[in-house]
Design brief:
The protein is α/β, with parallel strands linked by helices and 155 residues long. The protein is built from 4 helices and 6 strands; from the N terminus they run βαβαβαβαββ. The model has no long low-confidence stretch (mean pLDDT 96).
Length: 155
């Protein structure tokens, strides 16, 4: 069994022409730090996939200041318009290639975070608050997960 943590980035500045350039607000940075502490306390992720978009990268940086990971990759498959099925195929490949990592964190965006949960736990497609984390128990042999909870920041 593996643990897969799917995290939406912290609060970002309003929409603009270059969506990939949107940065976190001060509140978004605070949310990311809060959830970084929560992740460290409860799950200690040891592998990370993160969207190349600025707000996701900034969220991951906040988490990484508090959590040491052995695997860290920017993944263009987890952008807002990404294909969740393809992204999960890629994640499953990485899990099989790196069996030493037990807790995988994906930092991405709405709506793909909801679609990723649905791919791992069919019939579950939650809406994520900013910086929220879905916790999934994942059986890599059966290619099936169980959504345990969604934790949102208090701020």
């Amino acid at each position: 069994m593996k643990t897969i943590l799917i995290m939406r980035h912290g609060e970002a500045v309003p929409m603009q022409a270059m969506d990939e350039q949107r940065a976190l607000t001060q509140r978004g940075v605070a949310q990311a730090h809060e959830m970084g502490w929560w992740l460290k306390t409860h799950y200690s992720p040891d592998a990370l996939l993160v969207s190349p978009y600025i707000r996701a990268q900034q969220t991951a940086e906040c988490v990484l200041t508090l959590n040491q990971v052995g695997f860290n990759e920017t993944c263009k498959d987890v952008i807002p318009s990404g294909d969740a099925a393809f992204a999960i195929d890629y994640l499953e490949t990485l899990i099989s290639l790196h069996p030493q990592y037990n807790t995988w964190l994906i930092v991405a965006h709405m709506p793909i975070v909801s679609y990723l949960v649905d791919q791992l736990c069919p019939g579950k497609m939650p809406i994520f608050n900013t910086a929220a984390v879905a916790v999934i128990d994942y059986d890599e042999q059966a290619h099936k997960g169980c959504l345990l909870k969604i934790q949102s920041p208090l701020k």
